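Now for my pick.
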Amino acid sequence: MNSVPDFDDLPLVEGMPKGCAWGVFDRDGKKDQVGTLNFLTPDVVRNAALEVKDGVSISLNWPLNAMNKLNIPGRLAAQHKILYIPESMAALPFEQGKSWDDELSFNTQCSSQWDSLCHFQHQDSGLAYNGANPDKEALSIDSTSYNKMPTLDHWHSRGCIAGRGVLIDYASYAEEKGIEFHAFDGNRITVEDLEACAVHQNVEFQPGDILIVRTGATEVVDNMNPADLGKMAAAKLTGLHGCEETARWLWNKRFAAAASDSNSFEAYPPLKPDGSIGGMKDLVLHMYCLNMFGMPIGELWDLKELARYCKEKKRYSFMITSTPLNQPGLIGSPPNALAIF
């Protein structure tokens, strides 16, 4: 990791803004497809295992149907179909016995998720991480061995995620410090805020960490009241401040990945360079993290129990494992994430 340039020292990539890490992880003439997961070296994983002291594991996965009450148009809500096998497999020439199957249909952005490095393209060029050029045909591949797109199935070739997680519980920090804060007020959490919260929690970042930031968003949705519903209608989401300074900090810390319980990880709506309000295409950290760094973004993670346990034990680092679904060309996936203490 010491050989990886800092943000301001990254070699310029033609047609791309400063801070583009394309090619940094390429080896032996082969284009990299997993980005900052390369920071999860054997030494990093071994050290992460030292975090396991209590024998306690905590799920970070929100129910698949948790957002059905706030379904976003154009994204299929989670649907669960129960199948009684003697009926569903009646055509088979043998008796099934009393037994059950089920089927799931859902958009991979509908609950806790990882965004792959194809999820958000560089808007001017249309390219994804490391110069990949995704389209429906390229993403509809049926075998990872032929897949040239940096999608989530490639994680399985390197054992997915096992590393050290660090929780920045900004929701609790703001409450303790008397900072006006709500998960649906569009608060912009700055680098200064993140560093101050880390000091407050006695967190020391290490290269290869998986950063997790709590805003309380999923808890607001779980316990929705009329006032919260009114805030949600304004479509303002609290998250990391989407700007170059935050991007520089994320890269220079050598995070292997970053996640949050918010719907967008970064504050929404984003700000354009001139300070005016932007739209989805203007998301700054999505462009830097997913597209230019190759840093996966997790959203809508369930952090309530994790925050409670961290506060109780007064330690905010732990081992984390995450295994997305293994489907060729997968753009998003439930994280299937565990924090292990």
About this structure: The chain has two domains: 7-70+109-340, 73-108. Residues 112 and 253 are 24 Å apart (CA to CA). Residues 7-70+109-340 form a domain with the Glucose Oxidase; domain 1 fold (CATH 3.50.30.50). The first helix runs from residue 42 to 49.
